[in-house]
Specification:
The structure holds two protein chains of two kinds. By secondary structure, chain A is mainly alpha-helical. Chain A is 78% helix and 1% strand. In chain A, β1 and β2 (95-96) form a beta hairpin. The two termini of chain A are 24 Å apart. The N and C termini of chain B lie far apart (63 Å). Classes of the chains: A mainly alpha, B alpha+beta. Chain B: InterPro entries: Peptide/Ni-bd, SBP_5, SBP_5_dom.
Chain lengths: 325, 528
């Protein structure tokens, strides 16, 4: 009992520590995002009013948008509002940032979730194939792994789109719904190609991690020892995958960042109205509050996913939660 | 080692089983598609985001927004006349049936169409006109919003507006302005009752106008749809429904058309048209008033020398760009005005492809050994056409006569920022725009106010006179003359005019593309 309560306590402290780190990261991201978008040349008022507007008109609109105030005040203003759950006003769309970001966030989470699932399947399947006894199978898997890892998501997305939506029209050519097809089934169909485009590289990365863990394990005496004790091959597989899981989860967590970046292109190509597509538009329109809102949300997702990966790993691996790695 | 492979095979089997099950699940649920009986046209648009739907603010999505959203839901007193696909688009009556202009050019009296109702069932009348104009211009109006009114520069000329009777409204101008009728075309009228009830916020989300289509539904960042207005005062549309999908990527638009996700795509990729036609799709295009040019910075070397500017215009092979590179989706521009412009005169086609002439002009100007220039261009977006490929082709053509071009790609906002701040480091800027609205030429042409250092006092005088000349023919002649001066000055390097290439399924009938950016959906139908 005594021992258990200590570990629980340690686990609790671990999570609190990681949460504090997450908050610091969020503040850092907010600062970078706020100032970075203002470093790109471009005047939001000029974009809204057009080149034939007078400097006075633009100055007036900048006043309305609060852009004439000192930067540091603008930042404090924004920070206070974000803390209150208000991401500001998207002037390019005359809507609250939250109203624009909300639906986009849902779509990106759907896409990211589907991609993560597919990536895990790819990772497990390829990781096992890459450590199988057949030399040919291992070769071929390594091949695919190299292709998946090096193919740019933009190209993969275009190839999949042309191959499976145009030449062999199995899947719809983009969007999240089409005429006469609605509901979760249609959604799954629409998400398939973009999710696969996003999942290939992270899947291959996870396969690599699984391959390393399994072959490391294969070089030890653990598996023969377990087999000698009469464990079935299924139980052996469970043991070896349990050992391989923490690094795979860490890889997945990190890869989510890459997926969010890749979503930028994939969402454009498959015209999925998600965060990636939204940030491209809002940067083009120099809609500062919208850019800040979207970038901040993306960063928070990334940080939360990393946190979740750490927590899951801590639950899986007692060494992590007691800090003895 | 045997256990490993047994384990792998099992796992593989399990994984494969999961995938098959998932696919079967997906396949089942996709079976429920039913062919809709209604005529719905789905358009794949290059718009990247949906604007506020409140009248003037729709222009935030560019002219695409006006074409595919604003003009469906709302109407102005006048409109662009796109009824004749072979003529340049002039002015036609819309919510105003007719008008009278006082001799001093200061009073415009409009007789309004009778029997027009807004989509909420309320009447469109003189009071509604006054209500809307006050909303756009009067800062004390409860519904005033600078972000909406700012697009209606024409209203700055309005001193007062008055309802004479239910169906007559009189505008008094503060100075004569000959483009008043032309520029009113996009000053939209929204239902006063809907504004009173739901304010600007309501209008931004649920626009209520008088147009041939009624706003139905908006899916954030994805699509917007409209249904036919069965109570439309004019000729009702044939289509039951129009949906506009946002597909900013051109290759994705082509794929969407091929797969049947959309029936019609805007701004089709020139390279895709031939294969689309082979696959049974129909492409349309018609040259319109869209000038794709390099605006030369004429106040600094080397383009302060007219000979260098002329040399540029002789050095390029416009036909190769229009016909080979763009597969006929553009027409060569040999002067300031496009052939589809109201102000075009064939006699002013001054420049031809003559590299010899270009070389000798350069030598005369002291650049026999060549010169280096930097050109900023907008990579993509509204009307930029195939900017990268076109500019690279021009770069290699100009290199032939010794002009070495460094290209500096920027995005739309970057171009605006660079021009606005005036420290571009460029010798020319490439952006495409229309000259159809001469009242807005100050930033592109007039002395002291344009961004390119161009100044021709005579041009300005002709332009100023045109602004107050109410006779259509006289006004056109003045602008033609002004354009001739600009062409003689070689103020720009004139390259091509766009034809607005579109592609659509063969069952889309009744569309004749006008010589205009604006289109009319009234006669478009779907016959399968």
């Amino acid at each position: 009992m005594e021992y258990k309560s200590i570990t629980h306590n340690r686990f609790f402290r671990f999570v609190v520590g990681r949460l504090a780190f997450t908050a610091v990261t969020a503040i850092f991201v907010a600062v970078v995002v706020f100032f970075a978008i203002r470093l790109i040349p471009g005047d939001p008022a000029l974009l809204i009013l057009g080149l034939d507007s007078s400097p006075e008109e633009r100055e007036e609109l900048r006043g309305v948008m609060g852009l004439d105030r000192p930067l540091i005040l603008q930042f404090v203003d924004w920070g206070v509002r974000v803390l209150g759950g208000d991401l500001g006003y998207a002037y390019s769309q005359s809507r609250d940032v939250l109203d624009v970001v909300g639906p986009a966030l849902t779509n990106t989470l759907l896409l990211g979730g589907a991609a993560s699932l597919i990536a895990v399947v790819i990772g497990v399947v390829m990781g096992n194939l890459a450590t199988s006894r057949s030399r040919a199978l291992r070769r071929i898997t390594d091949w695919f792994e190299a292709i998946f890892l090096s193919a740019p998501q933009y190209t993969v997305a275009l190839i999949l789109l042309i191959a499976f939506a145009v030449l062999v029209p199995v899947f719809p050519a983009g969007g999240l719904s089409s005429r006469g097809s609605d509901g979760p089934g249609a959604l799954a169909l629409h998400l398939a190609l973009p999710a696969i485009s996003l999942a290939l590289a992270p899947g291959a990365q996870m396969a690599r991690s699984l391959k390393t863990s399994i072959s490391t394990l294969q070089s030890t005496e653990l598996l023969p020892a377990l087999e000698a004790r009469g464990l079935s091959s299924w139980r052996l597989a469970v043991h070896s995958h349990h050992n391989a899981l923490p690094p795979m989860i860490t890889v997945l967590g990190i890869q989510v960042g890459g997926m969010l970046g890749g979503a930028l292109f994939v969402e454009q190509i498959f015209s999925i109205p998600g965060l990636g597509a939204l940030i491209v538009q809002s940067v083009n329109l120099r809609d500062y509050q919208l850019v800040q809102g979207v970038a901040f949300v993306i960063a928070i997702i990334f940080v939360l996913v990393l946190l979740a990966a750490d927590v899951i790993n801590a639950l899986l691996d007692p060494r992590i939660r007691v800090g003895k790695v | 080692m045997q256990h490993t492979s047994r384990r792998s095979r099992r796992l593989l089997g399990a994984a494969a089983g999961t995938i098959v099950a998932a696919l079967a699940l997906v396949g089942c649920s996709a079976g429920g598609e039913s062919a809709p009986d209604e005529q719905e046209l789905v358009i794949g648009s290059q718009m990247a985001s949906l604007p506020s739907l409140d009248t003037g603010a729709i222009t935030l999505a560019g002219y695409e927004g006006q074409r595919l959203i604003g003009n469906l839901v709302y109407e102005g007193l006048t409109k662009r006349d796109v009824s004749d696909p072979d003529a340049a688009a002039g002015v036609a009556p819309a919510l105003a049936e007719s008008w009278e202009i006082s001799d001093d050019g200061l009073t415009y009296t409009f007789a309004l169409q009778e029997g027009v109702t807004f989509h909420d069932g309320t009447d469109f009348d003189a009071d509604a006109v006054v209500y809307n104009v006050n909303r756009y211009t009067d800062e004390n109006d409860p519904h005033y919003d600078a972000a909406v009114g700012t697009y209606y520069a024409v209203l700055a000329y309005v001193e007062s507006v008055e309802a004479v009777d239910d169906s007559t409204v009189a505008f008094t101008l503060n100075e004569p302005f000959a483009f008043f009728l032309a520029d009113l075309y996009n000053v939209y009228f929204a239902s006063p009752e809907s504004l009173d009830a739901d304010g600007n916020e309501g209008q931004a989300k649920n626009p209520v106008g008088t147009g041939p289509f009624v706003f139905d539904e908006l899916t954030e960042n994805q699509s917007i749809s409209f249904t036919r207005n069965d109570d439309y005062w004019g000729e009702a549309a044939e289509l039951d429904r129009i949906s506009v999908e946002l597909i900013p990527d051109p290759a994705a638009r082509t794929a969407a058309l091929r797969s049947g996700r959309v029936d019609w795509i805007e701004a089709a990729l020139p390279d895709d048209l031939a294969s689309l036609e082979d696959a049974g799709f129909v492409s349309t295009g018609n040259p319109f008033d869209w000038e794709w040019s390099w605006q030369l910075f004429t106040d600094v070397a080397p383009f302060d020398d007219i000979r260098v500017r002329q040399a540029m215009n002789y050095a390029i092979d416009r036909e190769a760009i229009a016909n080979d590179l763009l597969h006929g989706t553009a027409v060569p521009a040999y002067q300031f005005f496009a052939e589809a412009s109201l102000y075009y005169d064939e006699a002013d086609d001054l420049y031809s492809y003559d590299p010899e002439m270009a070389r000798s002009l350069l030598a005369e100007a002291g650049y026999a050994d060549g010169l280096d220039i930097t050109v900023g261009y907008i990579t993509a977006g509204s009307g930029a056409m195939q900017a990268k490929a076109m500019n690279e082709a021009l770069q290699s053509q100009l290199a032939e006569v010794g002009i070495n071009v460094t290209l500096d790609p920027v995005d739309f906002s970057g171009m605006y920022a660079a021009l606005g701040e005036g420290n571009t480091g460029w010798n020319a800027a490439n952006q495409a725009f229309s000259l159809e609205q001469p009242s807005s030429w100050s930033w592109s042409m007039l002395c002291g106010t344009n961004y390119f250092g161009y100044c021709n006092e005579e041009f300005d005088a002709l332009h100023a006179e045109a602004l107050v000349t109410s006779d259509d023919a006289e006004r056109a002649a003045l602008l033609t003359e002004a354009g001739r001066l600009q062409t003689e000055d070689a103020g720009w390097m004139y390259v091509v005019n766009d034809t607005a290439p579109r592609a659509m399924a063969s069952y889309v009938k009744g569309f004749e593309q006008p010589k205009s950016w604006w289109i009319d959906f009234t006669n478009v139908s779907i016959e399968e």
